[in-house]
Structure formats: C-alpha cells, structure tokens
Amino acid sequence: MSLRGRACIVGAYEHPTRKAEDKSVAQLHAEVAFGALQDAGLSKDDIDGYFCAGDAPGMGPLAMADYLGLDRLSHVDSTDIGGSSYLAHVAHAAAAIALGRCNIALITLAGRPRSEGMATGTGARAQNAQVPDDPFEIPMGRTVAGSYAMCAMRHMHEFGTTSEDLAWIKVAASHHAQHNPHAMLKKVVTVEEVVNSPLVADPLHRLDCCVISDGGGALIVARPEIARSLKRPVIAVRGTGEAIKGQFGGYPDLTFSGARFSGARAFAEAGVTPADIRYASIYDSFTITVLIQLEDLGFCAKGDGGRFVRDGNLISGVGKLPFNTDGGGLCNNHPANRGGMTKVIEAVRQLRGEAHPAVQVADCGLALAHGTGGLLGHRHGSATLILERE
Amino acid sequence: MAERIYAAPIVDPSMKPVWDAAAEGRLLIGLCKDTGRHFYYPRGASPFTLSPNVEVVQATGRGTIYSYTVMRVAQPYACAYVELEEGPRLFTNIVDCAFEEIRIGMKVRVVFRPTQDAEGAAGAPVPMFAPA
C-alpha cells in the first residue's frame, strides 16, 4: 500500500520560546499541542492518535497522553529515532489513518536543554550497561560534535570539500533567520565569520554548529476528507521514507547518510524527482549534515555538495534550492536537541504560503522535509517526507 | 598537556574475554566464521549473518587513520576511526601525537591506556592508537 495522498497535515505549531526556565517539559508539550489544535480548528477530543518520542517524559506515550487528557486514543506510537522521529511519525500517522486505526493524530515534541545547561555537542555521556556499543565508544570520548566532525573530515579528504563550502550553509541560514523575530541568531554572517569562529571539533567551527534551545512543536495529521472540511490549506503527504544507518559490522563509510535510502523511498512513493522540489527543509544539526544529506537526497551528485551550496544557492530568492527559511537549527532553534519537528513545520508554512514574505518561495506546491537523528558518524535514523499543497 | 582520564568500560559478562585481553595488551576483534569476515565491535552474533558462529581473534593492532577530529574542549583530545589491517574501522583516540601532525592515511599501532571508574578505581584498559 502506498501512503501517497492517504493523510494530510492540518495543524502545525512552533513554540515561540527559546528559553523556558519556568516551564516543565510536560507543560511545553501541552502548549504546542494546544497551539497545533488551534491552528487546525480542532479540539482535544478530536484526537484519536498520539505520537511522541524520547523527549516526552514517562514511559512511551503513557505519561503525556494522560497529562494532555487524551482519553479517546485508539492508536499510539513512540518510535524514537532521535531528531528524525517526528518525520517518521507523520509517515506512521498516515499509515495508521490509511488502515483505519485513527482519524486525527497529534505529534508533539518539547524540551529544555538550554535551561538545563546541557553541553549537547561536546559533553561526555554516561554509559548504559545494556547498550552494546557504549563500552567501545564512550571511553573514547564519543560526542555529537565529534561524530559529525569525522564525517566532515573524511568528506573533505575524498571530495575536496572546504570549510568555506560548509560556511555557505550557515550563511544561507542566517540570511533567512534575519526575518524571523523568534530566531536565536538573527545576525547575517559571512563565510569569513564562520571559518574564523573557534574550532569546536576539527574541521567544524562554532558557527558550523546548531544552537541549543528550549521549545517545541506539534503537528496534526488527519484523514483527507477531514482535512478538506477544515478551513486551512490542505497539505497532503505525498511520499515517505525511513532508514537506519549503522556501522555495517565495523565498515562505516562516513561520506553518506541514511538519507540515501529514506530519500529514494520517499521520491519513489511520491513519483517525483529532486528537480520537482520547490523548497527543502534539511536537518541542520551541523553544516556538514546539510551537505551530506543534499547529496544523498539527490539534489546533487555525491561529492558535489560543496559546489552545490556555494554562492548562496540555498538562499530563498537567490539560489536554486531555498532551504530552512525559518533559519533552521543553525540560527533559529533546535528544541530538545531534536530538529525534525521544526523541519516539517517550516515546510508546511511554505506550502501554505505562510512563510515570512521575505523568504516565501513563489508558487510553492511541493516541498521536502528530511531529518537525521542520532550520530551521523556512528549510527543514526533518517526520515524523509515529500509534502504537497492540494 | 596531560591526557584526559579515560572512563572505564562497563564490562558485560559476554565481553569479559575482550577486556581481559586488553589488560594483557592484546586487541581482540570479532570473526564471523561463516563468512570469514572480521567485525568490530565484538559481539555474540555475526553482524553479517546473525549466526552465533563467531569468535574473538587477536588483531595485529596495526592500521591506518580513516578519519579523525580534534575535540577542542578544556582538555583537548583526538578521536578517530582507524582501519585495522583485518578490515574493520574502529572508533578510538589518537595519542602520543601532536594534533597538527594527525593525517588521514597515517599508519598507527594500538597502545592501551588505563581507565578509571566514577569512584577512581582502575578499569579495563582501552585500545588507543599512536603513530606506528
């Protein structure tokens, strides 16, 4: 069964906070859920499907479903593939709707790593005795930034990608963020400023890294007949793909990501090609994440990412592939250290024509959103969505 | 600058032979006896076939750097994937080498470093790599 056209995104809401010192994670989940329901013109008791991931406190969906008062649920799913979870949730919601297991699904994300002072990128993590890779990797200083940095180093070695190429990705994000009043980093930066910012994990500089922010977001996915009865533009799920990329038993290739597989699956289901995509939300935990995913999704050939992103090619109104027009994780926010939710939300804004006028893509009828969750250089999840305005 | 203190690996009972060998300065890696391919990290099932027909074997401890990074934290250190002569790429640290001299393709050899648990007790040593 294809999921093409089997469900629509009818509600989307991004929390405006970037630092929520006086709120609980559960409260943030409630606020984004309420915001998405208001956006859709629906109410809590319309929800019969609920999706959340590891940022949701409690066992799977249990604590949050109870806290939110979701007492009419006939379908739940707490798949956790890190920051890419929420794109997978949209696909899973579409599948559940297609199977008749629910009609209107809520997906929530929220967290407050900034208020908690988390050293997300460079901090050491504790070993879990049950996780088989931990004893072989955590004593070696496995970190988020280091994992992505090794991918960048290898990509540079094999393909001649430069720090200046990577910097163009941040520059493009900053050009978009200047128009977003909620963005953490609104200042437009130059390639020189990026490459002259301090190294965090060679070859990645501070400005190659995303922000650490509090906040969250929520989506409502509904049966197409319901979507057409509501007042908002109808945004159909046209293609979906998921993948996991690990180490292949100790033979990792750091130059590609799971997007190679999830993207191909999503394009096949949608029956379109990268050339048809008008706008792309591309996961941007680091600049290298964007570059490798763009190649893997087929927007350019493997190894050509550096040339592809140069000279503002990702800037709306300037280049061929406008990306992350909210400023993305690099400049806007990265709530709960998981950027997949906001990737979908900005794609929905673009398809509705509700992005900031300075970055709105003209006649945006087909958009892609893609997420990577986990560690690019160790093991990660990938999820791709192709969305269409009806 | 002194090297950072390495966290003791949690020794799962099934991996005790691997860490006991580390204490003797020997690097053990997995071998899938069905395919003849080596794998890393070691485990009780082949990542190629899922068969339990696996064993741990001693590696030469020689390899080349596949990729690396220098973590610019308070006590900087260099992480790397080292491609072993037997094939697998192992996540490790590069030690006994100035950061600016580390290169992809550099020949390295295993050296074991002592570890400490949270209470300061000695743990199993961990395989790091130094210029060969």
Automatic annotation (TrEMBL), chain A:
Protein name per Swiss-Prot or TrEMBL: Thiolase domain-containing protein
Every Thiolase C-terminal domain range: 251-388
Top-level taxon of the source organism: Bacteria
InterPro entries named among the record's database cross-references: Thiolase (IPR002155), Thiolase_C_2 (IPR055140)
Organism: Falsiroseomonas oleicola
Automatic annotation (TrEMBL), chain B:
Annotated signal peptide: none
UniProt-listed InterPro entries: ChsH2_C, ChsH2_Znr, Thioester_dehydratase-like
Domain ChsH2 C-terminal OB-fold: 57-113
Occurrences of domain ChsH2 rubredoxin-like zinc ribbon (ranges): 19-44
Protein name, UniProt field: Zn-ribbon domain-containing OB-fold protein
Native source species: Falsiroseomonas oleicola
